[in-house]
Amino acid sequence: MDMPAYLSGQLLLALPGIGDPRFERAAIAMCAHDENGALGIGLGALVDGLGFHDLLRQFEIEPGVAEDRPIHVGGPVEPRRGFVLHSPDWGGQDSVDVAGRWALSGTIDVLRAIAAGTGPRHWVAALGYAGWSPGQLDEEMTRHGWFAVPANDELLFDLAAGQRWNAGYASAGVDASLLSPISGQA
């Protein structure tokens, strides 16, 4: 059986009935996927009651010119660890290039840069990440569970969290309202 192509730079969408409530209607920006495993940042749900200014203040950073945007639930792994998914026009101490399409940063320098107005032009902040061990996501892609679409700046940075799942499917010509949570067998 052929394994799917590596998914870095794609938006991974949960299919209805995925079987794990943590991933219902999930829209995950895939940042790494190779023989060592996979890592993505969830962009389909928000952390209740926490905004970007609150996060900055926890690090004793004045919000400066930063917009007070919502914080995303990046995933169930390390939910207290922060990440900023951003355009590649800024790079910091640990910024990682994601398929030449965007970057991922996880240190305080990106927070300071955004507050100062010298950070990336486009960005979303998240707590936690979704992670898969080597081969795990490849195997999950062969079953009913995930659908991958090319990610673009609008899907990642311009839409509200609650719109990404439907918009991701629409970008592939799929009407998500017609998807069934029940899979069949031939």
Automatic annotation (TrEMBL):
One Pfam family of this chain: DUF179
SUPFAM superfamilies in UniProt: VC0467-like
Signal peptide region: none
Family, per entry: Belongs to the UPF0301 (AlgH) family.
Protein name per the record: UPF0301 protein K7G82_12645
UniProt lineage: Bacteria, Pseudomonadati, Pseudomonadota, Alphaproteobacteria, Sphingomonadales
